[in-house]
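Example 3.2
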Amino acid sequence: MTAKRALPPEGSERAYRIILGMLHKNTGHGSPVTMSASHLWNTVRHASLSKGDAKTALQAARENGDVHRWQDGEGQIRYALAADGVDELPDTEMPIYTSEDVDALKAVIDVEVSRPDDELDQNVIGWANTHLQAIKEGSDGDL
């Protein structure tokens, strides 16, 4: 495992894993492939996790490359679990999405490539392509 740029503050590993787990459980498999910020914070509100710990954990996860933050075509902030974030979750491996999520992942790419060059986020395109490739490999190449 490679060294991370930002480590969660001591004692907040639990919050970090909870945030990653929330993103994993609330995306894909018939649900949107990204989780809206409002849905994330509603989920945090019902978890045994303070909003402050959740914000700190989410920021660290973003800095570590475990979570991507994305603004969709309607201007809504959304979050997604990166491949590195999948590696951080016990008993979870790629692909985390299924063939039913392919169109939604492609739609993320379409939204991103429609932006002006100075607003284009290559990390989001890379995230979607990584997950598309994992789906393709998991389905013997049939997409």
